[in-house]
Design a protein that fits this description.
Structural class: mainly alpha
Number of helices: 3
Shape: elongated
Distance between the termini: 22 Å
Largest sheet: none
Length: 92
């Protein structure tokens, strides 16, 4: 049962963090003076601009997922009395 709880807690927190981080990155992009209607998938968009956008959103999502997954693991460990099995397997 613990493994299932960890999968839901860890994955769920990472997904929510990724979505929230992308929204925050979009706001930062606009506040930096970039076009709000910019579409990095459009082949007519400048490649360097699309690359900068990808770097910003990727960094924001990665940091948010890492922080929330760590917090979820701390919560799990505090509640269960041990780290999730998937994390314990990596420690060995």
């Amino acid at each position: 049962m613990g493994s299932m709880v960890w999968k839901i807690l860890g994955t769920g927190s990472a997904i929510v963090a990724g979505i929230a981080a992308t929204k925050v990155a979009d706001q930062i992009w606009q506040k930096a003076g970039q076009d709000a209607k910019f579409d990095p998938k459009d082949p007519d968009s400048p490649f360097v601009t699309a690359l900068a956008y990808a770097a910003l959103t990727g960094l924001a999502a990665g940091v948010a997922r890492t922080l929330t997954t760590r917090k979820a693991a701390q919560f799990y460990a505090k509640s269960a009395g041990h780290k999730p099995k998937e994390i314990l397997d990596r420690d060995m």
